[in-house]
Amino acid sequence: MKHLFIFTLSSLLLLGSTNLQGQIATVTGTTAEKNNLGKIKNVNVTAYDLVTNEVIANALSNNDGEFSLNVPVNAKYRLVAEKKSFFFRETEITAKDDVQPVNIIMERKPGYTFDVSLTSAHPINGKARVENIIGARIEVYNNTTRKQELSLKDHPISSFKFNFEEGNHYTIMVRKKGYLTKRIEAYINVKGCILCFDGMGMVRPNVVDVMVNDNQMGSFLGNMELEPVELNKTFKIENLYYDYDKANIRPDAALVLDNVLTVLKDNPAIQLEMGSHTDARGSDAYNMNLSDRRAKSAVDYLVSRGILPKNLTWKGYGESQLVNECGNGIKCADTRHEQNRRTELKIVGISDNDPLDKKSLKQILEGEGSRSNTPFYGDSINE
């Protein structure tokens, strides 16, 4: 009987040890940004066995930056916290029944947050009425890594946010039926450009930059206006200059037309007229002929860069559509005459079929790279 008692006690001790090994401890904690900048949501927290490096548990932090993991007790673990735009953080813990909450402090990588609202401005009785745009298609492509990093279709709200990382060139494209497609090139600490955007010029007054850590991190807050597509709507082309009595495209004019080229590429469903206007100095016939030659020269330049002729026509208006009272025989300052010397694009046709509807931003950019000397878009492109 004595030996039987000893055996039974040993069995109980072994059973107690087995139960202990099967116990589970709940590891809780929070993920927060360095320098008390707030909690971080959607951080991927993974527990690895410190000996075998096996994944034991995984969780995402919630909107309050909180997470919880269930792991076996009496073992050591390596907690790894990861989120895009942050340096990963590693912490070692020993799981016990009374394990203390883990506060994981993460440091943001050098880069910038792009936080933008989408609106459309319509003048009403001389005042602007701002309308929020919902249902847009928003895409971001990283030209440096050649990866599409954001794709939102029928976005249900009128704003979006994206985190840029330094050393990269991004293309942002926003599309919405009934509006001109908007393309923006973003350069993040590339070739000395800390934070540069091509294509945001019209909203620069509505942009606020918040920079920290010697301009290594920050946010770019802005309002992006999309232009409605309306028949006979005109757009003035700024800073398109010609030499006196000439119609050839100067190098500085070519740079301006290259920006127009991007707009035409991204909006192949509209047909535009390039209109050139002069001031009233000189004869009517002379001005009409000069403006016609200048408009044709600009169109020829764009067609030579791949725009289909059916999408772009030209017309010289001479001094027939002055924007002020500086007509024949009226003495005006040079600045007043300059207002009449302008080049405009006018929407003269709108097609229901947009050949880019079925293409992603990645496909559009790849197509541009493979067709540098052929039309950008047209009937010959397979959908």
Topology record:
Layout: H1 2-21, E1 24-33, E2 44-49, E3 55-60, E4 66-72, E5 75-82, E6 89-95, E7 102-106, E8 111-124, E9 127-132, E10 136-142, E11 147-155, E12 159-165, E13 168-175, E14 182-190, E15 193-198, E16 208-212, E17 217-225, E18 234-237, H2 251-266, E19 270-277, H3 284-304, E20 312-318, H4 334-340, E21 342-350, H5 361-370
Parallel strand pairs: 1-7, 8-17, 19-20
Antiparallel strand pairs: 1-4, 2-3, 2-5, 5-6, 8-9, 8-12, 10-11, 10-13, 13-14, 14-15, 16-17, 18-21, 19-21
Word description of this protein:
Strand 2 and strand 3 (55-60) form a beta hairpin. The protein has three domains: 2-106, Immunoglobulins (Immunoglobulin-like, Sandwich), CATH 2.60.40.10; 111-225, Immunoglobulins (Immunoglobulin-like, Sandwich), CATH 2.60.40; 234-370, 60s Ribosomal Protein L30, Chain: A, CATH 3.30.1330. With 383 residues, it is an alpha+beta fold. Mean pLDDT is 81; it is low at 1-20, 201-215 and 370-383. The radius of gyration is 31 Å and the shape is elongated. Strands 8, 9, 12, 16 and 17 form a five-stranded mixed sheet that branches. Strands 11-10-13-14-15 form a five-stranded antiparallel sheet, covered by helices on one side. It contains five helices and 21 strands. It has helices spanning 2-21, 251-266, 284-304, 334-340, 361-370, and strands spanning 24-33, 44-49, 55-60, 66-72, 75-82, 89-95, 102-106, 111-124, 127-132, 136-142, 147-155, 159-165, 168-175, 182-190, 193-198, 208-212, 217-225, 234-237, 270-277, 312-318, 342-350.
